[in-house]
Recover the amino acids of this structure.
């Protein structure tokens, strides 16, 4: 069975009018223009037979919902749901990877949202977000300047799966800080790498 979902943002709030971020604060109230916007929204939606009305309990959202509801001929109760409250945490507090007991915050979002930095975790009601399920892995950029090729890369999940290895989380931390690893490209850059090992393989 298809479900029709109509999303309506609250009307212009006092913080909106001042260009302020409001988050979960209830100090941001619906303005006269906001009430008028809600009345117009109610009129536009009045012919739809809604089964349920859900709203955040914040005053600006609740007043918008109540004003819209007045345009409906059929009485509808509004369900005020705390799950509709704005997030009050940094994204990195919700989306992260744990390595050796350290929480490493990670940016990025869903693949279907068109994010270049694609990361996906699972949201479980009452529990929150899981660690990263899948997302960006190896990323490389190549450009040029007056000195030639400039190559940088990062392996978001790091090179080693061994918790005892120094490379178990080093690049994940760099990725979290939005940093890159400069990749050697010229022969002199490769030869000057102190970790360079040359292995010659020949056939019988």
């Amino acid at each position: 069975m298809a479900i029709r979902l109509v999303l309506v943002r609250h009307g212009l709030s006092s913080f909106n009018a001042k260009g302020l971020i409001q988050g979960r604060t209830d100090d941001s109230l619906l303005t006269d223009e906001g009430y008028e916007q809600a009345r117009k929204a109610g009129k536009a939606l009045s012919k739809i037979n809604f089964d349920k009305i859900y709203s955040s309990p914040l005053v600006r959202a609740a007043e918008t919902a109540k004003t819209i509801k007045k345009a409906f001929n059929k009485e509808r109760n509004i369900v005020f749901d705390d799950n509709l409250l704005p997030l009050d945490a940094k994204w990195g507090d919700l989306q992260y990877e744990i390595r050796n007991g350290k929480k490493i915050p990670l940016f990025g979002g869903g693949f279907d949202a068109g994010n270049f930095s694609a990361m996906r975790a699972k949201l479980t009601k009452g529990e929150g977000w899981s660690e990263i399920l899948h997302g960006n892995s190896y990323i490389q950029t190549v450009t040029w300047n007056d000195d030639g090729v400039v190559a940088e890369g990062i392996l978001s999940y790091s090179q080693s799966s061994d918790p005892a290895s120094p490379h178990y989380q080093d690049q994940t931390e760099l990725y979290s800080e939005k940093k890159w690893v400069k990749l050697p490209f010229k022969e002199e850059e490769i030869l000057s790498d102190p970790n360079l090992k040359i292995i010659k393989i020949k056939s019988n």
Residues 32-45 form the longest helix (14 residues). The chain has a mean pLDDT of 88.
